[in-house]
Hints:
Elements: H1 3-16, H2 29-36, H3 40-52, H4 75-79, H5 81-87, E1 92-103, H6 106-112, E2 119-129, E3 132-142, H7 143-150, H8 159-165, E4 172-181, H9 184-190, E5 197-206, E6 212-221
Antiparallel strand pairs: 1-2, 2-3, 3-6, 4-5, 5-6
Helix pairs in contact: 1-3, 2-3
Amino acid sequence: MQQYEEIAAHLRSAIRDGNLQPGDPLPSESELCRQFDSARGTVRQAMSLLRTEGMISSGQGRRSRVLKAVPTQSFDNVFSFSQWCHNSGITPGQQTQWVTKRPADSHLAAELEIPDRSPVVSVLRLRLMDGVPALVERLNYPLWTGQHVLTFDTDSGSIYQHFVDSGVDIATATRTIDAVAADAEDAALLGVAEGTPLLRVRRRAFTTEGQPIESSDDRYLHNLASFTINTTRNSPSGLSMITG
């Protein structure tokens, strides 16, 4: 661990343990330099990291203060519904409607960056939270990834974890979040009326080299899930608002 990471970890722990409360000023750069016997640039690098995480204010000539922050989540928690449920004290479940190998239409081929009509593996699953219908998953994989799904009991648990256990390279993911009305299939699976508003999360996942390995469409009952993100002035954010 580099020294700036050590300083950031110390401050992060103080914030999470409640020793530094929202609104409290952080120790000055001079204090941290003395405490860690470090250069001022190293301390500033640690502060920059915490600002990027949305944990402290930008300062701008005055001492940075602790922000009221939403806890960050690991990649596994963000990517895996099962892991998110477990960490939230919820029992996840799934009812697979079908798993099929089929030719990709032009839209799906573009999403996965494969030729039209290339074979893909598609899954339709109803996901449960403590036994209650919560979302409809539509998952699509190129065959080289999807072959792992064809040999997996998709009612037994997390497809994501099965990929990890199988050595599939999953490095990054982008998610687009919007709202849609429940169509007939969604409504029947979720037990709601057609037209009920659903929170839709469309995800593309990529290998370390940037090769697409998944294109999915998850539709949550709007009262069971929401997304919160912290943003700080003059710090980059993973959230982008785009036109429809």
